[in-house]
Design a protein that fits this description.
Layout: E1 11-18, E2 21-26, E3 29-35, E4 41-44, E5 59-62, E6 74-79, E7 85-90, E8 96-100, E9 112-117, E10 121-127, H1 135-147, E11 153-157, H2 166-178, E12 181-184, H3 193-200, E13 204-208, H4 215-222, H5 226-233, E14 246-251, E15 257-260, H6 306-313, H7 318-329
Parallel strand pairs: 3-7, 10-11, 10-13, 11-12, 13-15
Antiparallel strand pairs: 1-2, 1-6, 1-14, 2-3, 4-5, 6-7, 8-9, 14-15
Helix pairs in contact: 4-5
Length: about 325
C-alpha cells in the first residue's frame, strides 16, 4: 500500500461522556462514539527478553479501571456509516485526575476511576459558610492533586457570608503561607471573579467540591448560563456507589475549558498507598528523610521525628498534621 492511499484513523478529544457513549470533538464537529471491547481488556505477555521468544499473548484480563476512556482523552476511532464511531485507541495521557472506586464494605478490590484526563489544574471549591468549610476534605483534594503532579488553586465562595470570620481567615492564611494559591470570591459583590478567570484562561480545569458550596452560582458569574448548563448534565452520586453518569467539558469565553464534578461527600484517594503521605504536604515534604529513622519513620511516635518536632514548634499546623495521619489510616 502506498503512502498516498494510507488513510489514518480520525483523531479527536472526548468532551462528553455518559454511560456507554462518548462525544468526540473533531475539527469543530462532535462525533458520538462507543468504545471497542478490546479497550476493556489487558493482554498479558510472557516475562522474558523480547528478543529471545516470539511475542504471544498468554492471558487476557479485565483492565483495573472503571472506564478506559475519560473526558479530556485524545482518542482514535473507526468512523461508521451512520455518522457515529467506534473508539479503538486512547492516546497517552499527560495527566489525569483519579479517585478510588467507592465500594460496599465487603468489596476488597476497588478500581481506579479516571475522572478527567489531560487536565492542567484542579480547583477545589469550598464555601466560607453554609455549609461550613471542611478543611480535611480540602486536604484530600490537594493530596490527590499533588500525587498526580497537578497544581491546585483553592477557591472560596460565599465570602460575603463570613468576611469577619477570624477562624476562616486564619485557616486560609495557613494555606497561603504553605504556598497554595487561594482565591476569595463572592458572587454577590463580584469580588475575586476576575482573579479566578485569570487562573482559568488557556487551561483545562476541573472544579471539585461538595453540593451546596455554590459552584453553579460561581460558574454563572464566570460565564452567564454556564452553571445552569453544567447543572443539567452533572452526574448523580450515591453514597456507596459514587457512579458518575455524565461528565462534560465546557469552553470558557475567557479562554480555556472547565469540567465540573458531581457534588461528592467522599473522595477516595487512588495510588498513594505506597507513598509517604508527608511528601504530598508541601510544608512537610522538605523534612521527609530528615528523621532519626530516615525514610522508615511513620511520623507518629518515633523519637527524633523531624515532622513531629516541627509540629511541636508550630512550624507545621497541628490540624494539617492530624489530617495527614488520618489519610494514612484509611
Amino acid at each position: 500500500m502506498s503512502f498516498e492511499s494510507y488513510n489514518p484513523l480520525p483523531e479527536g478529544m472526548v468532551i462528553r461522556k455518559s454511560t456507554g457513549t462518548y462525544d468526540v470533538l473533531v475539527d469543530g464537529t462532535t462525533v458520538p462514539c462507543e468504545i471497542s471491547n478490546r479497550l476493556r481488556k489487558e493482554l498479558i505477555y510472557p516475562i522474558a527478553d523480547p528478543s529471545s521468544i516470539r511475542p504471544r499473548v498468554v492471558a487476557v484480563r479485565n483492565i483495573q479501571t472503571i472506564d478506559p476512556v475519560a473526558v479530556g482523552d485524545r482518542v482514535r476511532f473507526l468512523p461508521g456509516n451512520n455518522g457515529c464511531g467506534l473508539i479503538v485507541e486512547v492516546l497517552p495521557r499527560r495527566s489525569r485526575l483519579s479517585r478510588c472506586e467507592a465500594t460496599g464494605p465487603f468489596e476488597r478490590h476497588a478500581r481506579e476511576q479516571v475522572m478527567v484526563a489531560n487536565l492542567d489544574q484542579v480547583i477545589p471549591v469550598m464555601a466560607a459558610a453554609q455549609p461550613e468549610p471542611s478543611w480535611n476534605l480540602l486536604d484530600r483534594y490537594l493530596v490527590s492533586a499533588a500525587s498526580l503532579d497537578l497544581p491546585a488553586v483553592i477557591c472560596i465562595t460565599k465570602l460575603d457570608l463570613a468576611r469577619a470570620n477570624s477562624n476562616l481567615l486564619d485557616a486560609l492564611g495557613e494555606y497561603h503561607r504553605i504556598g497554595y494559591t487561594v482565591v476569595l470570591t463572592s458572587t454577590q459583590t463580584g469580588e475575586g471573579i476576575a482573579e479566578l478567570c485569570s487562573h482559568l484562561q488557556g487551561k483545562l480545569s476541573v472544579f471539585m467540591g461538595k453540593s451546596g458550596v455554590g459552584k453553579t452560582t460561581l460558574l454563572n458569574a464566570i460565564q452567564p448560563g454556564l452553571g445552569l448548563r453544567v447543572g443539567e448534565v452533572s452526574g448523580v452520586t450515591g453514597k456507596g456507589r459514587h457512579t458518575t453518569t455524565r461528565l462534560e467539558m465546557f469552553p470558557l469565553d475567557c479562554g480555556g475549558h472547565v469540567v465540573d464534578t458531581p457534588g461528592m461527600r467522599e473522595f477516595g484517594l487512588w495510588g498513594v498507598e505506597e507513598l509517604d503521605l508527608a511528601l504530598l504536604f508541601p510544608e512537610m515534604k522538605p523534612l521527609v528523610g530528615a528523621c532519626r529513622f530516615g525514610l522508615d519513620c511513620s511520623h507518629t511516635h518515633e523519637p527524633g521525628c523531624a515532622i513531629l518536632k516541627a509540629v511541636k514548634k508550630g512550624a507545621i499546623s497541628e490540624r494539617r498534621y492530624e489530617s495527614m495521619i488520618h489519610l494514612g489510616e484509611e
